[in-house]
Amino acid sequence: MAIRQRGLAEQVCGVVRRATIIADCERLGAVDLATGNLGSAIRGADLVVLCSPIGQMGALTREFLPYLEPDALVTDVGSVKGPIVAELEGLIAKAGGHFVGSHPMAGSEKTGVHAARSDLFEGSLCALTPTPRSNPEAVVRIRQLWEAIGARVLSLTPAQHDDLVGRSSHLPHVVAAALANYVLSPAHPKEQGALCAGGFRDTTRIASGSPEMWRDIALANREHLGRVLGVLIEDLQEFQRSLQQADSPAITEFFTAAKQRRDAWVNPSATASAE
Question: 129 near 161, Cβ under 8 Å?
Fold first, then answer.
């Protein structure tokens, strides 16, 4: 949708899993042409963007490789890069194409074409994860693509990316899901849900995301996610001990540090001015 509105491609073709939404994809302006036929969509394409759940990307790539044009660019929007890059880079190179991993840090818990927005990437950050095997021109062109639709681009190695988003993206989703599962459990009194207000809604919003997508993300980044989850559990246990001991200074410091760090992240210019 963003590419079409900015006139960055002669034609945008979307591959859909359900024939029932083909007409909606075209009517809403997400694509020029929607189809369930992967081969017809890939044939003749200069750029292929994989937007499926991570667990499907390998199989989809193997399926479309016979139709891939020489020197075609391939990227993805997956939230985990290490295993995706390791699997796809060589496959696509053997077929004569060029793969560069991407992860736009934008989106919401909503899914499907009806939730699409052409301005989604404006002002967002997109991580690129080139490797020593990456074609330099392909890296430049993929960077230009994301910049052309409004994103800022940060280059990282796949391992750096997965370590960082394990903390900032994947861990928060696990926490949100755990809160939703626990607090809204049918084991609690029926009045429990009525007492869940804005704070609970904000904290658990992302738990409404696609279970299939987040299952694949958690499994693909399980090494990094498992490690940072262990650190968080230790931090919570430390806070629990402070509560048990009625340690007022430690509890105050816990909340004070959290406020200061988040405020500085939300408004870094104000923090710099204060300093």
Answer: yes
